[in-house]
Amino acid sequence: MNLNGFACHYLDEGNGDPVIMLHGNPTWSFFFRELVKSLSPAYRVLAPDHIGCGLSAKPPATRYGYRLKDRVDDLARFIDQLNLDSRITLVMHDWGGMIGMAWAIDHFERVGRIILLNTASFFPPAGKQLPRRLQLIRNMKYFAPLAVLGLNLFAVGAVYMAPYRPLSTDIRTGYLAPYNRPANRIATLKFVQDIPLVESDPSYATVSRVQVNLHRLSGKPVLICWGGRDFVFDRDYLTEWRRRFPHAQVHLFDDAGHYVLEDASDRIIPLVRSFLQKNPV
Question: Taking Cα atoms as reference points, which of 179, 193, 192 lies closest to residue 151?
Answer without folding.
Answer: 179
